Amino acid sequence: MLRKQSQRSKSTQNSSKTPKVDRSSTIYEVISNPWELVKDYQSHTKSIYKILTKEFGKVETPLTYTKDYELCIAVILSAQCTDERVNQVTPALFEAFTSLESFANAEPKDIEPFIFSTGFYHNKAKSIVGFAKMLYGEFQSKLPKTLEEMTKLPGFGRKTANVVLSEVHGIVEGFVVDTHVRRITYLLGLTKFKDPIRIEKEIMQKVPKKYWDALSLYLIFHGRKTCIANRPKCTECKLSKLCPSSLTKKQ
């Protein structure tokens, strides 16, 4: 537990040290409207894509699975949870329920103990059972190939559906916006919005479709490795010279 400093010690500290940027706050506070500093959007986007391609190479979902429906379940579990945590719980889950039919015939309470640590386990267990029942019964265990059909499955929104369509079928119908992508597209000046739906729509209008899939994954990996929400490593960032929100320019 942190102890409160005396007023005297605080005063001494403040007078002897140069004020620093508060890295515990979001970067949104450092600069407003970063997109206004982007003069050539297309060139800016291509430069970002090129640098991240060089850094991360070919990318694919970090979720581990062996069957298509297992990926779907893993993606459902990844909501408000790290992929690392999901990968820790799915081996035991998939060992206990060895087929799509076994998930379809399960009760949510049977699944909950396996996924407790991923958070929101009551709702996730219901979604998993509902997803398995519909996929097994209405789709004959075959994953749909359209966004419209995919989003009919319990537990599936646009983000989840886009992830699975791309990974399983190689079909790209949208731009995946998770928490990392939502934050970093704003910081890089790729969007002026903070709402996932509006971000996706803007990116799809401005960025060529061939970039959508990989760019989303690149930004996710970049968010985990370097552009961390409350402690961005701007001095180590490969994109710092391109980033209108880079802290290295404000210090």
Give a nutshell description of this structure.
53% of the residues lie in helices and 0% in strands.
Overall number of domains: 2
Output the CATH topology of the largest domain. Answer: Endonuclease Iii, domain 2
State the separation between the terminal residues, measured CA to CA.
30 Å
Report low-confidence residues grouped into runs of 5 or more. Answer: 1-30
Main pleated sheet: none
Mean pLDDT across the residues is 87
- Name the helix and strand elements from N-terminus to C-terminus, one letter apiece: HHHHHHHHHHHH
User: What is the CATH superfamily of the largest domain?
Assistant: Helix-hairpin-Helix base-excision DNA repair enzymes (C-terminal)
CATH class membership of the largest domain: Mainly Alpha
The share of residues in helices is 40-55%
Radius of gyration: 21 Å
Would you kindly provide a written description of the structure presented here, covering whatever features stand out?
This protein is mostly helical. The protein has 2 domains: 27-58 and 176-246, Helix-hairpin-Helix base-excision DNA repair enzymes (C-terminal) (Endonuclease Iii, domain 2, Orthogonal Bundle), CATH 1.10.1670.10; 68-169, Endonuclease III, domain 1 (Orthogonal Bundle). 53% of the residues lie in helices and 0% in strands. It contains 12 helices and no strands. The protein has helices spanning 7-16, 41-56, 68-77, 83-96, 100-104, 108-115, 121-137, 147-150, 158-169, 179-187, 196-206, 209-225. The model is unreliable at 1-30 (pLDDT under 50).
